[in-house]
Design goal:
- By secondary structure, the chain is mostly helical.
- It has one domain: Butyryl-CoA Dehydrogenase, subunit A, domain 3.
- The chain has a three-stranded antiparallel sheet with strand order 2-1-3, covered by helices on one side.
- The longest helix is centred in the middle third of the chain and has 31 residues.
- It is elongated.
- It starts with a helix and ends with a helix.
Length: 155
């Protein structure tokens, strides 16, 4: 049901994930003269900005977390299955953060040794917001389950 609070939290998680695909926000940017080492292959940081679209694995993870959020909204009749899908969504967001940091470090290490300042962009807030929305959804699902169990005891 869409009128439950966990559905709103899951819609927020889906929106935070899809915002990375719709508006290519920068996760991080490198300030300075971006030059590659001669021995290194092409880096994704040539433009100085690290986007989700720089790596296909990150695009797949963002799409997967959005799809899992939508699927979990419509699993309201089976709360244990809904909780499983929400947990998988949270794992997807955590994996997105870890892989984005890994890929950024990998691309950053290919740059010529010099003094670079890197800033974490506002696109890095979206996976964190997705994690917070999924935590709130888990709490709401557990609260709903507790309410149903207490009503079953009264019957």
């Amino acid at each position: 049901m869409l009128q439950r609070i966990q559905s709103l939290f899951l819609l927020g998680a889906m929106a935070s994930g899809l915002s990375l695909l719709i508006d290519p926000m920068n996760l991080a940017s490198v300030d300075g003269d971006v030059t590659l080492l001669k021995s290194q292959p092409q880096s994704m940081l040539d433009d100085g900005i690290f986007h989700i679209s720089d790596h296909i694995m990150l695009i797949i993870l963002v799409g997967l977390t959005a799809v899992l959020s939508v699927i979990s909204i419509f699993q309201f009749k089976n709360r244990s299955r809904q909780l499983t899908f929400v947990r998988m969504t949270m794992i997807g967001f955590l994996l997105l953060l870890v892989l984005a940091a890994f890929f950024f470090y990998q691309d950053y290490s290919k740059l010529n040794t010099g003094s670079y300042l890197f800033d974490i962009g506002y696109g890095a807030i979206a996976p964190v917001a997705g994690i917070l929305f999924t935590i709130l959804a888990i709490r709401a699902i557990r609260k709903d389950e507790k309410l149903i169990r207490s009503m079953d005891r009264l019957r």
